[in-house]
Specification:
Radius of gyration: 27 Å
Largest sheet: 9 strands, mixed
CATH superfamily of the largest domain: Immunoglobulins
CATH architecture of the largest domain: Sandwich
Distance between the termini: 50 Å
Amino acid sequence: MAFEAQPAHALLVNLTAGQAPAGWPAGAVPVNVPDESGAAPLLASQLNHVTYFDWSVYQNPSLAGSWRDEFWIDGSLVQLVTQNGVFTGGHYWLRWNTGPLFIQGGRHTLEIRTDPDHTSGEDYGQWGDNIYRIPFLWIPTTITPALSTETLSPQGNFLAPAPNCNAYAFTRTPGTAWVASMVPKQANAESALLLYDDYVNSTNGLMHEIGRSARAGLLTNFVVGSAAGAAATVYPSCSRMPGSPSALVTMAVADAAGRQSDLGTATWPSVNMPALMCAQVFEAYLTQGVAQTMTVTRFLGENDLELLVYPPSTTVASREDATWISAPRAGDDEYDDLVITPPVTGTYLLVVARVDASDVNKPAGYRLDLAPMGSVSAPVAFADVALAAAPSPAAGPMRLSFALAQPAHATLALYDVNGRVVRRLVDEELPAGPYARAWDGVDDHGRAVPSGRYFARLTAGTRTETLGVLRLR
């Protein structure tokens, strides 16, 4: 700690957090090496993960009492310094060097709080400057396809333009689609996956968001992109809502290298989904009007797998944006089937994903088959299948499935016992075929619903069905 007398340019009894001494770029400065000399620290253009921190508090009177100075990172107290009023004069910079600390790659907020208990006898009219916050960026950690990592997601407000996040750099195989996946390993940990396509240095970058997932409990979240939909390197990151508990999340990435079909027909007989990975992406070139059947057969693991399909117009999309979702065959979650009639010719994105994280620590093995069924002039015959929900009661994700015998405008929504809409799952024109949608137990505003009875209502043409379901928390 160093003391430096300053000219008396103000007479108020005041402590100021984070006011920068001469030559400092900010009141709190992360550096890659220790800086105990008191000289002006130089902010690194790229911050290493092992980091030191210079931070300052300005004392503008002589004080007789005692007070605390606190240094926080992402809402967690890192260092506390107790000051006693033993100075004979005023106007001092109080400076500290903290570290080394290991900091995850991504955006993190530094915070200084001085005299949080109002013990110094200062002019409380000036107390608003006793808290100082500033964000910095650390080099995103490289993550490669087929690998995964576990991390504690930092606290950050999703509504802010640039929340705190742990960030990773993912460079995909050139010319391939890609997917980034994340799942909280605790049901009430509200985390989200955010995607960026820029990173510059320690003071900017990770500002251009290109996609994000919904936040949910143990439902797997992912963001998928086409070959031309984003930069060759993207930056998946995770963040959690303020007030949500700190919990491990898994982060994983994959591209479509080796999983591409130009013929509209293909068989991938033995695909391994490693432990902690939640989603893998395929590309298939499909012809307008030629009906396709797609089947996922799980032969290893316990996780329920499903197939989600996105049209050629997709650039970046979340799980919730899928146009088609497979359904279990006769209630057997070892097989999932999907039949679609492509509305346009082009390359479709196919994502095989774990429905939830119940066995995410174990690998899953599956087979994916694609085959054309004929043209629109010879459509596949479907029968109406009643609306069903499984599991019910459910504390985690619940799958609602049905099938349409004819094309129709379909709506599927959840209602509470008072008849109010809780969550809208479907409101679109659907061709004939089987469908499934997952409800993660949150409402249209992303809030977890209370335990109790709810009603799922399906309307398709002249058909209306209502089904009671139970949610647990």
